[in-house]
Amino acid sequence: MHYAQVQAFDQPPQYLEGPDLPAPADGQVRLKVLASAVHRLVQMRAKGQHFSARTAPLDPSSDGVGIDEATGQIYYIGAFAAATFAEYVNVDKNRLVPIPAGADPIAVAALTNPVSSSWMALSERVKDLPSKFSVLVVGVTGTSGRTAIPVARQFGAGKIIGAARNEKALQALVADGSIDKYIVLDDKLADATAALGHVDVILDYVYGNATATILTALQTGTDVETQYVNIGTIAQDESITLNAQTLRAKKLTLSGSAPGSYSLAAAVQQIPGIVALAATLPKPADVVPYPLSEVARVWDTDEARKKRLVLLPWGQ
Question: Is 36 contained in some domain?
């Protein structure tokens, strides 16, 4: 069987050949892996920068999509349920979610993790949202930020504001009705944020200086709360400077959302809804599929860093 592993944390994964899998244990099923996406989590694991990946060699994958060749049913393979940089996996049946017929396995592999980021934030990290709540998505033009739009709508959002650096991309999201309004992460951000008025929820994929500016300039009332949730750090800045007066002067709560801030049981409970939504979304243009056999060549390319790489164990 062919598979890919990180042999050392300063090297890309290598395409290898080894013995076939043993027979599935009781409660397991063998799946032929169709697609496994290279999420930011996967990239961090491959570098040994995530708590779940401390020693090499290892398969840095997190989730995937596979088919039961006996029945033809396609499944989403839950996070860390199996090492999916491989042609076949044995998976516990309770870690599988059936994918509706007609859904694109590559799109589901690419989008389930991004969808889960905002879904878990809204289901587990905020509370008591008003009807038709307003949400500001910081980093809305990235893959995860874009999927936060249909997630927020499904959770009942009445107004979605997008924030990003690329104004042309923001204008396109307004033009197609995806978002209602936008602000640009530029030198006018403080004024633009102040002009928004109250926002019920902030889902932040960027962090860094932009987040500090938004939290400082945001206008909140004394009777309504703004719930801020950090989900990512696109800015690659893990710290911000926030004046204490900002926290004392506003009805503001700060939290984060990722595995660790909610339980595995909560994630397992929510995953059927997450997969169902991901299966309805079209494959974004920035999703790039490659055969798993080319993993070492494509791993550190600009394309892999700037787009969303999906590896296909059986090629395409």
Answer: yes
Per-residue pLDDT of the chain (316 residues; tens, 9 = 90+): 999 999 999 899 999 999 999 999 999 999 999 999 998 889 989 998 877 788 889 999 999 999 999 999 999 999 889 999 999 999 999 999 999 989 999 999 999 999 999 999 999 999 999 999 999 999 999 999 999 999 999 999 999 999 999 999 999 999 999 999 999 999 999 999 999 999 999 999 999 999 999 999 998 877 889 999 999 888 777 888 888 988 888 999 999 998 888 888 898 899 999 999 999 999 988 899 999 999 999 999 988 888 889 999 998 7
CATH number of the domain that 62 lies in? 3.90.180.10
d(C-alpha 69, C-alpha 32), whole Å: 7
Domain housing 142: 118-256
Sign of the CA dihedral running 312, 42, 160, 168:
negative
pTM listed for this prediction: 0.90
Same domain for 47 and 131, yes or no, is no
Name the domain count of the chain.
2
Residue 169 lies in a domain: yes
